[in-house]
Design goal:
Number of helices of chain B: 9
Largest sheet of chain A: 5 strands, parallel
Structural class of chain B: alpha/beta
CATH topology of chain A: TIM Barrel
CATH topology of chain B: TIM Barrel
Number of helices of chain A: 9
Shape of chain A: globular
Number of domains of chain B: 1
Strand content of chain A: 5-15%
Helix content of chain B: 25-40%
CATH superfamily of chain A: Glycoside hydrolase/deacetylase
Shape of chain B: globular
CATH architecture of chain B: Alpha-Beta Barrel
Structural class of chain A: alpha/beta
Oligomer: heterodimer
CATH class of chain A: Alpha Beta
Largest interface: A-B, 50 and 46 residues
Helix content of chain A: 25-40%
Distance between the termini of chain B: 43 Å
Number of strands of chain A: 9
Number of domains of chain A: 1
Chain lengths: ~300, ~300
């Protein structure tokens, strides 16, 4: 099998552009709340395997894993609300990375995201990698996700992020679909960059493998909330320092089932408290950052 | 299977290591190694049977390219490298860039940058893949090709070799046979270099480190927080510094721009450099300088 894929290892090559964030901000902070619960793999939903990415005490693969289903359900039932209230308390409008099926299974939550004015990003139809999808299936999956999220929230998503890894066709299909301004299928940079489509600009808006509450449930992470907040605050402080001359963006990735637990939510408060105590910080949704980037650097205007 | 011929030396300096007599009466020689592997890692995309699995791995993808893994690696040359080298420059320390030849082919501007900053460019194999199972012919050809590529891109041939571990039983013999190498790092078995005297030449083995390495920031048995890596490395330094009053040793610190170069982790390197540069009698050396010193001190011609 031969694959065609152009990899860009150069990027801004050590000389990134000055992003000119609004009001002279030294850093753009994008808080992303992932809503995946109900869209994860499970034999219950007809999948060939149960989701394995979780505080897993026992891996069950030959039958339905109700414990895993329940752990995920916590995110939708309890965790989301705790996180949303905390974000409200610090007046942070997040981007919701929503799997369409997670919204479908919990329309109340979908409506709540819309009511709070969150930026709704399509995080796939289900919480599944597209690495093995054929083009026909993938095109249909993207279309279904857009339709479902639009129906449940009244907003068509202009941003997309695949559960990693995306497939080789994903970006092309998103562009072809026509309604997307950007995708976040990359972790390769600290700043967005543009793709020139000939008649419009398309933004690649990097996500993070780094500041992500998923490490609260992974062996290479930490169980302690204060370790997560220290990690995140360290990243913020470093970029804030660089931002005196070369501002960047920071993504903070959250999941209701991870950070939304009573033992962990304090970490989010510590992070928000710290960042709110600094001047010249732009808390922005991903849509706002993408539009800013097009305005600032785009060829075609918007 | 065939019989293996390999002489293992479990004795080494037998508890009585020689006095290293580092330049300037230094108590410890510190070798910072910046590994350049991005663009040389395995991927189904380029025809490998597997995607590189060594990273903050969320999902194993079999039978299709893992674009997420590639994106994580892309972060090194695009963003991380510049953050790391600026920090090394700020502390004015010597550095050995241990580079896979294929990575330099993919990112020649990184090679140029390393040369411009006065780093030693050593060879970290052709690709970032274990060489344990390569045939002699293939391995010999890869060593020769790597030397040629580095000479062409950097203007000077590499004097040091480091296989991605594990190396093969033939590696050292082939590296010596190539004729231009002064040393290899295919060893983690000591705190001091040693000479291979029966090779017709005086080849130096400069031990690498299995422990002072930012790789542990993405491994379950390692460190999530920057200050934990820093604490570990600083403890190693302090111990060797004490021992160095009588018996100076060397210390390697392994770095990767895709790992330590993220905003959440880079402060670890700053803590380490701040501490190490605050002490007197520390020799920040490239590995080739250490190898030359060792030959001059302990070789036949010494």
């Amino acid at each position: 099998m031969t694959y065609t894929w152009t990899r860009d290892l150069r990027g801004y090559a050590g000389a990134p552009p000055h992003p000119q964030w609004p009001n002279g901000a030294r850093i753009a902070v994008s808080v992303v709340l992932n809503v995946e619960e109900g869209a994860e793999s499970s034999l219950l939903a007809g999948d060939t395997q149960n989701e394995v990415l979780y505080d897993m005490l026992s891996s069950v693969q030959d039958v339905v894993n109700l414990s895993m289903a329940s752990n995920f359900a916590y995110g939708a039932r309890a965790g989301y609300w705790r996180v949303a209230d905390m974000l409200d308390k610090y007046a942070v409008r997040c981007s919701v990375n929503a799997c369409a099926v997670a919204f479908e299974q919990n329309p109340v939550l979908a409506a709540d995201c819309a009511r709070r004015g969150y930026d709704i990003v399509a995080h796939g139809y289900r919480w599944r990698s597209h690495a093995h999808m054929d083009v026909v299936e993938e095109r249909a999956t993207i279309g279904k996700a857009v339709e479902t999220i639009g129906r449940l929230t009244g907003h068509r998503p202009v941003g997309w992020q695949t559960r990693s890894p995306a497939g080789l066709n994903t970006r092309r299909l998103l562009i072809e679909e026509g309604g997307f301004l950007y995708d976040s299928d990359t972790t390769e940079d600290d700043l967005p960059y543009l793709i020139d489509l000939g008649d419009r600009d398309y933004v690649v808006l990097p996500y993070t493998s780094d500041v992500n509450d998923i490490f609260l449930q992974r062996a290479e992470g930490s169980r302690l909330g204060r370790h997560f907040s220290e990690h995140a605050i360290g990243a913020f402080d470093w970029l804030y320092g660089e931002g005196a001359t070369s501002p960047k963006m920071l993504t903070i990735a959250l999941h209701g089932r991870a950070i939304g637990r009573p033992g962990r939510i304090g970490a989010l408060e510590a992070i928000l408290q710290h960042i709110r105590s600094r001047e010249h910080v732009w808390f922005a949704t991903r849509g706002e950052i993408a539009r800013h980037w097009i305005q600032q650097f785009g060829k075609y205007g918007r | 299977m065939s019989q293996y011929v390999w002489t293992r030396d479990l004795q080494g300096y037998g508890g009585s290591p020689p006095h290293a007599s580092w330049p300037g009466g230094a108590r410890v020689a510190v070798s910072l190694v910046l590994n350049i592997e991005e663009g040389a890692e395995r991927s189904v995309l380029v025809g490998d049977p597997i995607n590189e699995p060594v990273y903050d791995k969320m999902t194993e993808i079999v039978g299709a390219p893992n674009l997420h893994m590639l994106s994580n690696f892309n972060y090194g040359p695009r963003a991380g490298h510049w953050r790391v080298v600026e920090l090394l420059d700020r502390y004015g320390v010597a550095c050995t860039a241990s580079a896979c030849a294929q990575a330099l082919e993919a990112t020649p501007w990184i090679a140029e940058d390393c040369v411009r900053r006065g780093y030693e460019v050593a060879c970290h194999g052709y690709r970032w893949a274990p060489t344990a199972t390569l045939s002699v012919a293939v391995e010999r050809e890869q060593i020769a090709r790597s030397v040629e590529i580095i000479r062409r891109i950097c203007g000077v041939r590499p004097y040091g070799w480091h296989s991605r571990n594990p190396e093969s039983l033939n590696t050292r013999r082939l590296v010596i046979e190539e004729g231009g190498f002064l040393y290899d790092n295919d060893s983690t078995e000591d705190d001091l270099p040693y000479l291979i005297k029966n090779s017709g030449r005086e080849h130096v083995v400069v031990p690498y480190t299995a422990d002072n390495n930012d790789m542990f920031m993405q491994r379950p048995e390692g460190f999530y927080l920057p200050r934990h890596l820093a604490e570990y490395v600083i403890a190693a330094f302090d111990r060797l510094y004490d021992e160095g009053a009588n018996t100076p040793k060397m210390m390697s610190i392994g770095l990767h721009s895709r790992i330590i170069g993220t905003p959440a982790r880079i402060s670890a390197l700053e803590m380490i450099l701040k501490h190490l540069t605050s002490r007197q009698h520390v020799w920040f050396a490239t590995r080739v300088d250490i190898a030359r010193h060792w030959r001059a001190k302990f070789g036949r011609t010494a």
